[in-house]
Design a protein that fits this description.
5-stranded parallel sheet, 24% strand, Acetate--CoA ligase, acetate-CoA ligase activity, alpha/beta, binds 5'-O-[(S)-ethoxy(hydroxy)phosphoryl]adenosine, 635 residues, acetylation, GMP Synthetase, Chain A, domain 3, AMP-bd_C_sf, Rossmann fold, globular, 30 strands
Length: 635
């Protein structure tokens, strides 16, 4: 029996039992047999969920790029590591072999070194989905620098906040980016952001769109000439297993974004292991995850997990609707994709279009389909299964988080029988628990509660950059001795898990986590706004859309409401990005509040979802009279 590659259900149960009976020897075996370490660990795991402190493979030394690139060179140097599929289908796809990837990563690493980047320095990467995005993060890892990718759809303010939070001195970007028929001026956004970032002294710019950009003397340089001059080999910096590999920001329910810190050894082991099993990856496969590397899905399952397995991974620059709604399927046919991993919001959008967009392509190469990011509804699941998978491809509904680093709950294709809307069973090593509101574990099946994990797994985030207390308070304080996910879940009669959604003030819109507080902060900056509250409501493509309840100041009362709505959305776009724009805005006289002054979002959620027959207990409200008025004028 191989711990590393599970091939049938019985084997899954055996491996799972072993993994929870003795997690340390389980992960030790996986780590030993499948990875290249420069020095062995002193201990497999040291942990304490109270402090909290978690260390995997402590004392071990490695470089993750040796595992993702160098060790493949001898056996699969000419194999394609990355297929780059550009936004414009008329532009040729690029096939980058492992040998070429090695050379490009080394050159990039040498450029970073020449710019003075050292082990432990943070490098902010604000690049579109072009090969340099993957190459630059691997280059950081090559020299032990900590990458922090900011999704290139975030606004200049959001970018500046992240740059300042992690204290980066260098930013990597491009002149612009392509998204469908739009061109975005990324360099201009960086220039705006840097007005608020005095610590940044270097900006390296990759040419992509060829649009004219301003290059600030002494700060900005084009990357190409530097790469041309760079030496094509770079000795990897050997780091401790617990050396930070990257920081990736995720929204919190309150306050600033949280810079989740992932470290090297455990992250590598867990993402590689789950990639292999969840996608049943085999040597000749072509795997495609449509996420952006600006999100955790792209980090773990476009770059690190696939490359650690010597896989061929597709990077797609474009969008599913350009040049038409058949683009995904055209790319599947063109590259003979075997595993396809996307988000429910994309499936829902495509399912609304003519079926010809799907049927005109040959999708027979597909073996496994995946989804991630939000609950998938039954209708979308069936459409995906029937029309994309032709009822032959198991769907892996993978549940996980930026904080978890890798997939925690998912079917194993060809082993776990799937069930629409269920993420099904925990991965080996993962011990889920459902908790009630009083902090007690709910045992048995056919129950629901708050989803926690009882025991550490190798890729759990180790801290929040610069704020360990917030890390403890957010994830380890709600339920003693457990990691709290912020999600609700139910366990059915056979023990399958279904994720029911967030139980905190994070709202998932089109698969993107958005905290209510930062959006409210942006709105409240409007001079006419006194107070606001954001809630989610069901939306047939985005999953959730945002509904804003806004109280105007007396001075704002006379203003044109339509203009105000535009200005509010403009502020949100500036502060966070267009993904956080509100679908509906209602101006209200007051907001339902508890006696302690907290907004009762539960009631607003019901109003936004048009579910006002039973508002539940409103007796604890300070101002029950406002509710009627809000309902009457709701949109
Ligand atoms: C949600 C994305 C239901 C969940 C990898 C989680 C899901 C949040 C699923 C994390 C799924 C992710 N079914 N809900 N298969 N996958 N979620 O950090 O609420 O962007 O807490 O990580 O997305 O989002 P994040």
């Amino acid at each position: 029996m191989s711990n590393y590659h599970i091939k049938h259900l019985e084997e899954y149960f055996q491996v799972y039992r072993k993994s929870v009976r003795n997690p340390e020897s389980f992960w030790e075996e996986v780590a030993e047999e499948h990875f290249h370490w420069r020095k062995r660990w002193n201990s497999v795991l040291e942990w304490d969920f109270t402090t909290p402190e978690i260390k995997w493979f402590d004392g071990a030394e490695l470089n993750i790029t040796e595992n993702c690139i160098d060790r493949h060179l001898r056996i699969r140097g000419d194999k394609t590591a990355i297929i780059f599929e550009p936004n414009d289908p008329k532009e040729a796809a690029e096939h980058i072999t492992y040998t070429q990837l090695h050379e490009r990563v080394c050159k990039f690493a040498n450029v970073l070194k020449d710019q003075g980047v050292k082990k432990g320095d943070r490098v902010v990467v604000y690049l579109p989905m072009i090969p340099e995005l993957a190459i630059s993060i691997l280059a950081c890892a090559r020299i032990g620098a900590v990458h922090s990718v900011v999704f290139a759809g975030f606004s200049s303010t959001a970018l500046a906040t992240r740059i300042n939070d992690c204290g980066a001195k260098i930013v990597l970007t491009s002149d612009g980016s392509y998204r469908g028929n739009k061109t975005i001026d990324l360099k201009g956004i960086v220039d705006d952001a840097l007005e608020q970032c005095p610590g940044v002294d270097t900006v390296l710019v990759k040419k992509r769109t060829g649009e004219k950009v301003e290059m600030k003397a002494g700060r900005d340089q084009w990357i190409e000439p530097l790469l041309d001059k760079a030496y094509s080999d770079c000795v990897p910096e050997i780091v401790d297993a617990e050396h930070p590999l990257f920081i990736l920001y995720t929204s919190g329910s309150t306050g600033r974004p949280k810079g989740m810190v992932h470290t090297t050894g455990g992250y590598m082991v867990y993402t590689a292991y789950t990639f292999k099993n969840v996608f049943q990856y085999r040597e000749e496969d072509v795997y495609w995850c449509t996420a952006d590397i600006g999100w955790i899905t792209g980090h773990s399952y476009i770059v690190y997990g696939p490359l650690a397995n010597g896989a061929t991974t597709v990077m797609f620059e474009g969008v599913p609707s350009y040049p038409d709604h058949g683009r995904f399927w055209e790319v599947v046919e063109k590259h003979k994709v075997t595993q396809f991993y996307t988000a429910p919001t994309a499936i829902r959008a495509l399912a609304k279009k003519d079926l010809d967009f799907v049927t005109k392509y040959d999708l027979s190469s597909l073996k496994v389909l995946g989804t991630v990011g939000e609950p998938i509804n039954e209708e979308a699941w069936h459409w995906y299964n029937d029309h994309v998978g032709n009822k032959k491809c198991p769907i892996v509904d993978t549940w996980w988080q930026t904080e978890t680093g890798g997939i925690l709950i998912s079917p194993i294709p060809f082993s776990t029988p799937t069930k629409p809307t269920y993420a099904t069973l925990p991965m080996p090593g993962i011990q889920p628990a459902l908790m009630d509101e009083n902090g007690k574990e709910i045992k048995g099946n056919q129950v629901d509660g708050r989803l926690c994990i009882k025991f550490p797994w190798p890729s759990i985030a180790r801290t929040i950059w610069g704020d360990h207390k917030r890390y403890r308070d957010t994830y380890f304080a709600a339920f003693e001795g457990m990691y709290f996910t912020g999600d609700g879940a139910l366990r059915d009669e056979v023990g399958y898990y279904r994720i029911t959604g967030r139980v905190d003030d994070v709202i998932i819109v089109s698969g993107h986590n958005l905290g209510t507080a930062p959006i409210e902060d942006a709105i409240n900056e409007h001079p006419a706004v006194a107070e606001s509250a954001i809630v989610g409501f069901p939306h047939d493509i985005k999953g959730n859309a945002l509904y804003g309840f806004v109280i105007l100041k007396e001075t704002g009362e006379g203003r044109n409401r339509e203009n105000l709505e535009k200005e509010i959305n403009q502020l949100i776009t500036e502060h966070i990005g267009p993904i956080a724009k509100l679908d509906k805005i209602q101006f209200v006289e007051g907001l339902p509040k508890t006696r302690s002054g907290k907004i009762m979002r539960r009631i607003l959620r019901k109003i936004a979802s048009k579910d006002t027959d039973n508002l539940g207990d409103t007796s604890t409200l300070l101002n029950p009279e406002v509710v009627e008025g809000i309902i009457k004028e709701s949109k």
